Model the fold of this input.
Amino acid sequence: MTLTLPKFELYETGSQIRKSSKSIRSNIVEGYGRRRYKNEYIRFLVFSHASALETLDHLETLEETGSLDNDDAYKKTWTIVDRCGRKLNKFISGVEREY
Done:
């Protein structure tokens, strides 16, 4: 979706969306690697959740400024990232309780 943005958004906001969305996964993986230490695990899961929120914010900015040609792609991407963030939030709560 980000590669179809207008040129002035492609390298700014598009790049930020790509970075923050990749960071979601990377922080989950890094946290898992530190799962032996509960606080470290949770810390990286929280970083991951924050990256999901950052991604949503960038997407909303694009929508608000009218920079998107494909509203369906925006809605689909926003829904996926939002669902991921909600699941992460529940997972963090579970790790805090049970781990």
In short: The mean pLDDT is 93. The CA atoms of residues 49 and 87 lie 9 Å apart. Helices lie at 7-10, 13-33, 38-65, 71-98.
